[in-house]
Amino acid sequence: MAASEQALRSVLQLSRPHKNLWWYYALCSLILGPFFFFMLIPLTFRFRTMRYEFDDEGVSMRWGVFFRREISLNYSRIQDIHLKSNLVQRWLGLGDVKLQTASGSASAEMTIEGFQEFEVVRDFLYSRMRGAKQNRGVQAAPDGQPALRAPDAASAAVNNEHLVAEPAGDIASADVIAELRAARIEMRRLADRLESLAQASGSVEQ
């Protein structure tokens, strides 16, 4: 059932993920056993810093501590919208909204996670995607020739796949690795600075 206009407009107020996203991250981290904190720490930073912004032009997502990352998409660039929700996510009332563009990449350009209103978010994005493409639908044509209309946005596939189970923990794995690498680099730099200060202090004492 399509969401009401008021529910769709409420998406503009969403900015922070639901607290259940952290619990999902915690459960996913348990796959590492006693070393779960190596995965949970960067995921916690990701959860704490994750922000979304929906406006009349597009949607943006940003997160990160050591290296902040940001993804912005105009509604007119969206080609496909997929819903994904594995068993753990469904238990927590969560789902992922995956957005794909015409970039040719097999993976999603943006994954909106952490919202219990993921179906409403999907409907909102689809309505904005369709509106953006209709606004630019009639293209200018040479004099004496009829205007060409761009393909209708209804041809863009919107797949509801939230009943398909995925392995828990596959979400944001690349971002976890990136955060761990960033943390290791920062710790190495800090160790080098401390070593330099120690050497400088020893030279002064001599």
Blueprint of the fold:
Layout: H1 5-10, H2 20-29, H3 37-49, E1 51-54, E2 58-63, E3 69-74, E4 78-84, H4 87-92, E5 95-101, E6 110-115, H5 118-135, E7 138-139, E8 148-149, E9 158-161, H6 173-205
Parallel strand pairs: 4-9
Antiparallel strand pairs: 1-2, 2-3, 4-5, 5-6, 7-8
Helix pairs in contact: 2-3
Structure description:
- The structure is a single chain.
- Helices cover 42% and strands 21% of the residues.
- With 206 residues, the protein is of the alpha+beta class.
- It has one domain (5-139, 148-205).
- It has a four-stranded mixed sheet, with helices on one face. It has a three-stranded antiparallel sheet with strand order 1-2-3.
- The termini are far apart.
- Residues 147-171 have low confidence and may be disordered.
